[in-house]
Amino acid sequence: MFKKILIANRGEIACRVIKTAKKMGIATVAVYSDADKDALHVQMADEAVHIGPPPSAQSYLIAERIVEACKKTGAEAVHPGYGFLSEKREFQEALAAAGIVFIGPGAHAIFAMGDKIESKKLANAAGVNTVPGFMGVIKDAEEAVTIARQVGYPVMIKASAGGGGKGMRLARNDQEAREGFVSATNEAKSSFADDRVFVEKYIEQPRHIEIQVLGDSFGNVIYLGERECSIQRRHQKVIEEAPSPFLTEAVRKAMGEQAVALAKAVDYKSAGTVEFIVDAQRNFFFLEMNTRLQVEHPVTELITGLDLVEWMIRIAAGEALTIQQKDVKLHGWAVEARVYAEDPFRNFLPSIGRLTRYIPPAEGPNVRVDTGVYEGGEISMFYDPMIAKLCAYGPVRELAITHMRQALDEYFIRGLSHNIPFLAALMAHPRFVRGELTTNFIAEEYPHGFHAEDLPVPSPALLVAVAAFVHRKHVERETSLSGQLPGHEVKPADAWVVQFGGNSYPIVLAPIAGGYSVELDGATLSVTSDWGIGQPLFRGVVNDGNDHHLVVQVDRQNIGYRLFHGGSRVDAVVLSQRASELAALMPKKAPPDLSKYLLSPMPGLLVSLAIAEGQEIKAGEVLAVVEAMKMENILRAARDGIVGKLHAKPGDSLAVDQKIVEFV
User: Fold this and answer.
1) What is the mean pLDDT of residues 503-509?
2) What is the pLDDT of residues 132-172, one digit of tens each?
3) What CA–CA distance (Å, rounded) separates 90 from 166?
4) Which domain holds residue 655?
5) What is the CATH number of the domain that holds 627?
6) Catalytic residues
7) What confidence score (pLDDT) does residue 18 get?
8) CA-to-CA separations, 638 to 595, 597, 626, in angstroms, rounded
């Protein structure tokens, strides 16, 4: 077994690998860029080596620096994680030339499966079902249109070396095929230094289901069940679960056996994933094979009890699999939600900055948190904005979802925007709960983007009770510190008005054991909790005839309270009856009119401007392209108008809400 390994990655996956290595008694080496000098993976590792400036092309993607770091520290092997160099044959070969073990498959398998065009040819030869399409390289946009017509719309235009949703476009007509070819080619070149793209038939009502495989150096290959990854946004996975609520045992077996056949065809040694697209009749077609550890591997670990990272290390060290296919048993259900630093209410734009408060849910039998951040750390503009992978487990799917919803309520993040409200809405969505999933789920359920009104509606009575409890605790503390004379103590009032969401709720409060009773609309609720002032999480029970076990995040906001529950945010104020009457008379300040500006919706690089001062524009016309997190974002005119002044030029780095164009 290895004595020391280097992790050629960063963030949560680097931390994840370090945890298993430490469990196995293996010393670890981290690598880091200037932006990551204080990162969690650097703190967790036994040693750390600086490899360059923040841009990944100048640090994490330079294979020579990883090899140098291994030689410098005496690392015998390298775990690549996912992304970066994990599927680069040249990296595996460079390590081999230096006598360093690559914790992953051989160079042949990486090459064969890393090219989507060649991998489909190999899959065909191995007897694996494949999607109809054109597997050759396309030279220009017009050829893309011709091929798309031959295959039949709708089609997917994909980067041959792609992954993570980059270099991928759906086209339903000639114009979309032309635009999609250009965008996919540009993104592919930027992200993978390989601008080749291909075209394949788009499967209607598709599910994205993948099979986890594990192979050793002795010809043994097994499959570890499937993962349902159909909840995607812009072709990037958001929610994953294992097993799939859609597959039958017969289909699972057929998909698993085809995945194993493909792995054996390329002499696969390590953990890998064969991805399939599945239609409404459970016909399945090969998409690609990822010759690395998948982001969503924890859900497979939770239902199989296997540590995939440990097996990758053992296989790389020359050990044989000690489990056979008949030994693989699936127990319970696991769901993973990707927690990102992004604003779901602004079209999921990346949010960068410092985590001023960061309290993840407590881990246990039903909750797992894979993260690479900590309170006080930063989410950088240079890398993927993932905060964590939150996993929930239960003996059945319904309980796994319940545990996930509670864990999302407990996830306390401040300092930047995050997508927890969106994740909470997905977990509560009736269609998701029923398991009626396709890769179109988000586009169909949120066709105009995600908005506050899409959040599950919290019970007003429950939040009124929590707000009343919290306010009463504050009032009691204030009166106890006021230096009152004995016999002249000021007692907190019992009658209050709780206001939020434009509504007023008159209540009467009375102390009971462990909390208070709350009279509201002729009914009496009880709210009990050991919550204390300053605690970010209110954990308690509200009884309205039934016990509701609640976790509510609490922030003090001036004279009021900001409450977060079920993805929703409520700004509550608790006032005396007279103060409530006077508050209703206060004037409302109108927001500023920003309609005459095109503002940058995200921090990023202004790639191009398609307009000039004085030019007339029409609604829907392209105005500018902003690149953020290696993704091109096209900004279009919301309505007809005339360009007045350009406030930025191509090449400028933009802040969020920075002015780009001013209209007359």
Assistant:
1) 95
2) 888 778 889 999 999 999 988 999 998 887 766 778 899 99
3) 21
4) 597-663
5) 2.40.50.100
6) 288
7) 98
8) 9, 11, 16
